[in-house]
Amino acid sequence: MKMLKKLALCLISIVILTACSTDENIKAETESGNLIGDWNVVSSKLNSNTGTSYNKITFTSNNRATFLYKGFGNNGQDITEAGSWTIKDDVLTVTWDSADAGLKVYKLNIIEFTATKLKWSTVISGEGTLIEELVKI
């Protein structure tokens, strides 16, 4: 009987250890070094409506971000916004240096993140859900 208890305990231990899988989806914060560099927006959907985008985003190692919206201004001029960025779990947060009231913090929910591809979503108040896909250049 004593041997049976030891065998049962051993089997339970083995099952518990093998049942715990490794986390294949590494949290974005552990891969934030992959974020550093220049990214082009290759796909942009607002409420499932595909739009054309020529935006470029630069993330630096000192946690600064610059968003360049090509031809987005009133007369077709480029617009640039800058701010600081952080990643916690799967949320990329950009805090703009200057923004209208209520728009200072931009939270992007990371859907996919590799060394060369980034996909995120965010809800834009009054407009809907924006999903963008970026590639590193």
Fold topology:
Elements: H1 2-19, E1 37-46, E2 49-51, E3 56-59, E4 64-69, E5 79-88, E6 91-96, E7 105-113, E8 117-124, E9 128-136
Antiparallel strand pairs: 1-2, 1-3, 1-9, 3-4, 4-5, 5-6, 6-7, 7-8, 8-9
Helix fraction by DSSP (H/I, runs of at least 4)? 10-25%
Helical element count? Answer: 1
- Average predicted confidence as pLDDT: 81
Biggest sheet character = 8 strands, antiparallel, barrel
Could you say which structural class the secondary elements and strand pairing correspond to?
mainly beta
Which tags fit this structure?
1 helix, globular, 13% helix, 137 residues, mainly beta
Describe this structure in words.
It contains 1 helix and 9 strands, in the order H-E-E-E-E-E-E-E-E-E. The chain is mainly β. The longest helix has 18 residues, at 2-19. The radius of gyration is 22 Å and the shape is globular.
Short structural summary:
This protein is mainly beta. The chain has one helix and nine strands; from the N terminus they run H-E-E-E-E-E-E-E-E-E. A hairpin with a 3-residue loop joins strand 7 (about 105-115) and strand 8 (about 115-125).
